[in-house]
């Protein structure tokens, strides 16, 4: 119910439902509210949801990253940086993002900026080609999703262009011969907004279906749209 109300933008009603529950709300309930607050840019209520999540799971890095992403999406880079500083102060270990795709009876795993794959040079060329197409179509890099403290905008754009999902997509397009088969990718964390938009545009430009299972849900990209309707 909290998720449904959040999707509809009924944040006050969702909050009232949470505080009136006959049982103590868990982190999943507060997380649903926080996700809605990010979508509808309600920073104040999102911060309250974070505080409750933190009380329940103080060492879960995902809680901090959710708040940091919410601040970044709202253009509050200083506040976003402060949240990451709080993670370091409390020795909260951030789980590195990774994306996996199967090919040739093997699981190929990529991390952001990965250069360890045997086909790294070919993958980089393919990714560069895709990025040029996507950016040329009008989908500009959303560098607010770069979590590192970097001020140079060109460096930030280069970093986000090499996220693990993009590397996995480039690899999948490069090695898959059957154009009717969708690319199936698994991500251990929540897909960022820039990679989500990237996958949408690639599905349209390349005429390929892409399925990405992230920490939250399945995303089925086809002909420029996603099954989640841009809410996840």
Q: In short, what is this structure?
A:
It holds the Pfam family E_motif. The chain is α+β, with helices and mostly antiparallel strands and 232 residues long.
The spatial strand order of the largest sheet comes to 2-1-3-4-5-6
Provide the residue-averaged pLDDT.
Answer: 91
* Class by SSE composition: alpha+beta
- The count of helical stretches stands at 10
What is the subunit organization of this protein?
single chain
| Helicity range | 40-55%
Give the termini distance in whole angstroms: 15 Å
Rg is: 18 Å
Low-confidence stretches: none
**Main sheet: strands, sense, barrel:** 6 strands, mixed
Order of helices and strands: HHHHHHEEHHHEHEEE
The count of DSSP E runs of length 2 or more, i.e. the number of strands, is: 6
- Give the overall silhouette: globular
Notes on the structure:
The chain is globular, with a radius of gyration of 18 Å. Strand 3, helix 10 (about 195-205) and strand 4 form a beta-alpha-beta unit. Helix 2 (about 10-20) packs antiparallel against helix 3 (about 25-40), helix 3 (about 25-40) runs antiparallel to helix 4 (about 45-55) and helix 5 packs antiparallel against helix 6 (about 75-90). It contains ten helices and six strands, in the order ααααααββαααβαβββ. It has helices at about 1-5, 10-20, 25-40, 45-55, 60-75, 75-90, 120-135, 155-160, 165-175, 195-205, and strands at about 100-105, 105-110, 185, 210-215, 220, 225. It is of the alpha+beta class and about 230 residues long. A six-stranded mixed sheet has the order 2-1-3-4-5-6, covered by helices on one side. Helices cover about 50% and strands about 10% of the residues. GO terms for molecular function: RNA binding; zinc ion binding. Belongs to the PPR family. PCMP-H subfamily. Pfam families: DYW_deaminase, E_motif, Eplus_motif. It comes from Linum tenue. InterPro entries: DYW_dom, E2_motif, E_motif, PPR_At4g14850-like_plant, TPR-like_helical_dom_sf.
């Amino acid at each position: 119910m909290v998720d449904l109300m959040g999707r509809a933008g009924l944040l006050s009603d969702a909050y009232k439902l949470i505080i009136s529950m006959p049982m103590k709300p868990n982190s999943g309930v507060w997380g649903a509210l926080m996700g809605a607050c990010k979508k509808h840019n309600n920073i104040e209520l999102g911060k309250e949801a974070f505080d409750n999540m933190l009380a329940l799971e103080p060492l879960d890095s995902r809680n901090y990253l959710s708040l940091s992403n919410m601040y970044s999406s709202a253009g509050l880079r200083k506040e976003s940086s402060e949240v990451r500083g709080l993670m370091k102060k409390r020795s909260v270990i951030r789980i590195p993002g990774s994306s996996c795709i199967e090919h040739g009876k093997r699981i190929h795993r990529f991390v952001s900026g990965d250069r360890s794959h045997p086909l790294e040079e070919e993958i980089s060329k393919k990714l560069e080609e895709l990025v040029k197409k996507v950016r040329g179509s009008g989908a500009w890099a959303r560098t607010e999703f770069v979590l590192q403290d970097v001020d140079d905008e060109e460096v930030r754009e280069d970093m986000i262009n090499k996220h693990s999902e993009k590397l996995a997509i480039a690899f999948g397009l490069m090695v898959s011969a059957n154009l009717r088969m969708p690319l199936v990718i698994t991500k251990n964390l929540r897909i960022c907004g820039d990679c989500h938009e990237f996958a949408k545009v690639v599905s349209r430009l390349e005429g390929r279906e892409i399925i990405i299972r992230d920490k939250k849900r399945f995303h089925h990209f086809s002909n420029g749209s996603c099954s989640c309707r841009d809410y996840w």
